[in-house]
Amino acid sequence: MKNFLSISDCSAEQLSELLELSGELKKLYKSSGRDLCLSGKTLAILFEKPSLRTRISFQVAMTDLGGSAIYVKPEDIGGARQGGSSLRNAPPKQEACRSTIGKREPIKDIARVLSRYVNGIMARTFEHSTVIELAEFATVPVINALTDFSHPCQAMADALTIAEHCGRLEGVKIAFIGDGNNVARSLAFACAKLGMKMVIASPTGYELDGESIQKANQISADSVSQTNDPVQAVADADIIYTDTWVSMGQEEEKQKRLDDFAGFQVNAELVKSAPANVRIMHCLPAYRGFEITDEVAESANSIMFDQAENRLHFQRALLKKLMS
Fold it and tell me: Where in the sequence is the domain holding 216, given as residue range(s)?
């Protein structure tokens, strides 16, 4: 396991090993223990898209393991292009500058230069091809911390959280309500590899692509299905999962998306259609009043912040596996 780019690239055994190691390290650090397996090692963390959880969890994980992380700002490594305003703060048509890895100098050059300086590269990018090319030319491990295509670190932290709260993964049913996006895709492959079931409820035109669903079901038959009915999706779910309706780079579509996703909000009425002990998950940031209500986010069923914490515990295990 040289890199971590997509869950579909990993075997079930590799994923299970990472989850087991995540649990062991979580227990160790919760009891004030230490594992300094990355002492003297450095991780470069590259960002085209900003993030609270990704940056802090990777930096803390490296520090916990005795190493260090260098945050590479978008403007340090790429040329500016338009786009990237936030859902909450920016007017619908306003666009801010965002920087793109590979615009100022070739990605293959960045990969080879960084490989001479650091022991690992983590990248959070728009195009999935960016992390693929980084991995092709780097001689150190490359981690996909999010692309428009997939979000494998999030899905694995989610699996850790589900195992903790449900006591198992095998047979757990996830109802994903919302856009068939990168998070949905990574969760679909995690379900197929780890014995869970997933139904994705999306408005027409926003479903997860058929190729990903077919590929997941080839791994494990009938593990992933698609519907346009959120009530049907949650009827026997162990987990209700949602994500933003407007991801970074989709700001020009904001109003259309808000209109199209009407009826797909995770609110108290929808939760009533699920079993009483259903858990609520969201990968954050949550735009309350849009894809989820504040009432549901703050309810006793919500495990959103356990989920966010487990980003740290999974990434600590991933870094140890790849870099120690």
Answer: 154-305
pTM of the shown model: 0.93
Residue 82, pLDDT above cutoff 60 = no
CA dist., res. 308 & res. 284, Å (int): 8
Residue 316 sits in the same domain as residue 295: no
Per-residue pLDDT tens over the stretch 232-266? 999 999 999 999 999 877 888 899 999 999 999 99
Instruction: Look at the chain and report how many structural domains it folds into.
Output: 2
Total residue length of the chain: 324
Instruction: Return the biggest CA–CA distance within the chain.
Output: 55
Q: Is residue 2 included in any domain, yes or no?
A: no
Residue 1 lies in a domain: no
Of 98, 153, 154, 282, the active-site residue reads: 154
Looking up residue 285, the CATH number of its domain turns out to be: 3.40.50.1370
Using the predicted structure, report yes or no on whether residue 58 has a pLDDT greater than 60.
yes
* Active-site entry in 153, 283, 313, 316: 283
Does residue 148 carry a catalytic annotation?
A: no
Q: Do both 99 and 224 map to the same domain?
A: no
pLDDT above 70 coverage of the chain, percent? 93
Q: Which residues contact 132 (CB under 8 A, 6 or more apart)?
A: 5
Q: Is 283 a catalytic residue?
A: yes
Q: Counting beta carbons within 10 angstroms of the beta carbon of residue 60, is it exposed (0 to 12), middle (13 to 18) or buried (19 or more)?
A: middle
Active site residue 124: yes
**Active-site pick, 53, 59, 64, 151:** 151
Residues 187 and 230 in one domain: yes
- pLDDT of residue 97 exceeding 70: no
Based on the fold, state whether residues 168 and 246 are members of the same structural domain.
yes
| 59 is known as an active-site residue | no
